[in-house]
Automatic annotation (TrEMBL):
Residues 1-314 form the Peptidase M14 domain. SMART domains: Zn_pept (SM00631). One of its GO terms (cellular component) is extracellular space. GO terms for biological process: proteolysis. The active site is at E269 (proton donor/acceptor). This is Peptidase M14, carboxypeptidase A.
Length: 395
C-alpha cells in the first residue's frame, strides 16, 4: 500500500485519507495541486486508484477521470465521490455484483477522482452561502461558473443568461481550477470522463452548446451506456441525451469530448428536488433525509461501477461483457444481455451493443408496422374474396 496524504483543510478529505489508510486498500494516492491567478489561489485534491505500482503501467490501462463538486452547493456529489472511494478501498461493498468481473475490471483500470473541484466555493457554502455555485473566496469575489469557463463556444449567452449563476469568467480558462483540471486531463489522457452535478436526475452526453448529439459509432456506444444506466439504476426516470433542455456554452464535458478527445464524456445529474422552494438551495440540490441520502448514494455508486465495466468492455480492456448470462442481476437484465451478446445477422463479430438501443427500437417499430400492414392486406383480401363469392351467387 502506498498513500500520500497532504494536510487537508476539510474533515471530508481527512475522511478520504483515513479510508485510504485502512488495511484493505490495494493501492491509492492523494495529490494536491495548487494554482494562482492574480493573487487568487485554488487547490485541487486528486485521489488515484490503481492496482499497479507505478504510473508507467497506467498507459496500458483503462483510464477514468471523475470530477465532483464543481458547483459548490451540490454537496451530495462529493458524498458520492466518498462512497465510490470507500467501495474501491474495500471498506464498503456493492450488493448484487459479480466480484470476479468487478475485480477483473479494476485490475485493468486506473481511476482518478476529484472529490471537490471547487474547493473555494465549497468553503463559501460551508460558511452559510447555501446558494453559491461559483468559485472564489469572499475576499476575491471571483464568482465564476467553472462549468462555463472552458473553451468550446465560450462566452456565448442565451436569452435567459443569468450573470449571477453563469458568469463564464474573463476568458476561457481564466480560473485556476479550470487550468488544473485541463492539465490533469492532458497528462492523464482518460478514456472516460464524468462531470457529476445535482439539480435533477439526468445522464447527459455531448453536446451542451447545441441541441444535437455527436454522430457515429462512438456516440451510439455512449448512448447505449446511458440508456443501460437509466434502466438499471435510475428506474428509467433519468433524462438521457444531450444538454438539459437548455443550451450551455463553455462547459467542461464539451471540451473533454471535442478538444481533449476523450471517447466517452458524460455529465451526470444525480439528484434534484424540483418541488423545493427556489430560495431553499440546500433542499433543491441535496437530499435532506437519511433514506433518500442513502438511496441516492446506493443507486449512483452502483451505476458508476456498471459504467466502469461497460466502458472497459467497450474499449476492449475487458473481454467479457458485463451482460453475460452468469453476471446478470435479473431476468430483465438477462433480456438486455441476450440482445447485446448476439452476433449481427451479417455474421460479423459486431455485437448488437454497437448498434445502440435506438436502432433496436427502430427495427422493432418497423417490424410492428409491417406486421400491421400485412394483417390489413390479409383482412382486405378475405373481405374481397367473400364479396366476390356473394356476387357470384345469382339472386
Ligand atoms: Zn451543477
Amino acid at each position: 500500500m502506498w498513500v500520500l496524504c497532504g494536510s487537508f483543510p476539510f474533515s471530508l478529505l481527512r475522511a478520504v485519507c483515513s479510508i485510504l489508510l485502512s488495511d484493505s486498500v490495494t493501492f491509492q494516492q492523494i495529490e494536491t495541486y495548487t494554482s494562482k491567478n492574480k493573487g487568487y489561489q485554488a487547490e485541487l485534491d486528486v485521489v488515484t486508484y490503481r492496482q499497479n505500482r507505478n504510473e508507467i503501467e497506467d498507459n496500458s490501462k483503462f483510464r477514468i477521470l471523475l470530477s465532483f463538486g464543481q458547483h459548490a452547493r451540490e454537496l451530495i456529489t462529493t458524498e458520492l465521490a466518498l462512497k465510490i472511494l470507500s467501495i474501491l478501498s474495500g471498506e464498503q461493498s456493492l450488493p448484487k455484483r459479480n466480484p470476479v468481473l468487478l475485480n477483473r475490471t479494476l485490475q485493468n483500470t486506473v481511476i482518478k477522482v476529484v472529490p471537490i473541484e471547487n474547493l473555494n466555493g465549497r468553503r463559501k457554502v460551508e460558511a452559510g452561502e447555501l446558494c453559491e455555485r461559483r468559485n472564489g473566496l469572499a475576499s476575491f469575489r471571483r464568482g465564476v461558473d467553472l462549468n462555463r469557463n472552458w473553451s468550446v463556444d465560450w462566452g456565448k449567452k442565451e436569452e435567459d443568461f443569468r450573470p449571477d449563476e453563469e458568469n463564464p469568467g474573463t476568458g476561457p480558462f481564466s480560473e485556476p481550477e479550470s487550468q488544473m483540471m485541463r492539465k490533469l486531463s492532458t497528462s492523464f489522457e482518460p478514456h472516460l470522463w464524468v462531470n457529476v452535478h445535482s439539480g435533477m436526475e439526468a445522464l447527459f452526453m455531448p453536446y451542451d452548446h447545441k441541441n444535437t448529439t455527436p454522430k457515429g459509432v462512438q456516440s451510439g456506444k455512449m448512448k447505449l451506456i446511458l440508456e443501460t444506466l437509466n434502466h438499471l439504476h435510475c428506474g428509467d426516470r433519468c433524462v438521457v441525451g444531450s444538454g438539459g433542455g437548455y443550451l450551455a456554452h463553455g462547459t467542461t464535458t464539451d471540451y473533454m469530448f471535442d478538444i481533449a478527445k476523450i471517447p466517452m464524456a458524460f455529465t451526470f445529474e444525480i439528484y434534484g428536488d424540483e418541488k423545493a422552494d427556489i430560495n431553499d438551495c440546500f433542499k433543491m440540490f441535496n437530499p435532506v433525509d437519511h433514506p433518500t441520502f442513502n438511496r441516492v448514494l446506493d443507486e449512483w455508486s452502483a451505476a458508476f461501477f456498471t459504467m466502469f465495466e461497460m466502458g472497459a468492455h467497450q474499449m476492449n480492456f475487458l473481454q467479457e461483457s458485463p451482460f453475460n448470462v452468469g453476471n446478470l442481476i435479473s431476468i430483465d437484465d438477462y433480456l438486455n444481455g441476450y440482445l447485446m451478446e448476439r452476433k449481427s445477422r451479417y455474421g460479423e463479430k459486431k455485437e448488437l451493443l454497437d448498434l445502440g438501443l435506438q436502432e433496436i427500437r427502430t427495427y422493432f417499430r418497423l417490424f410492428l408496422l409491417s406486421s400491421v400492414l400485412l394483417l390489413f392486406m390479409f383482412c382486405s383480401r378475405i373481405t374481397k374474396t367473400n364479396r366476390s363469392l356473394v356476387s357470384s351467387v345469382s339472386l
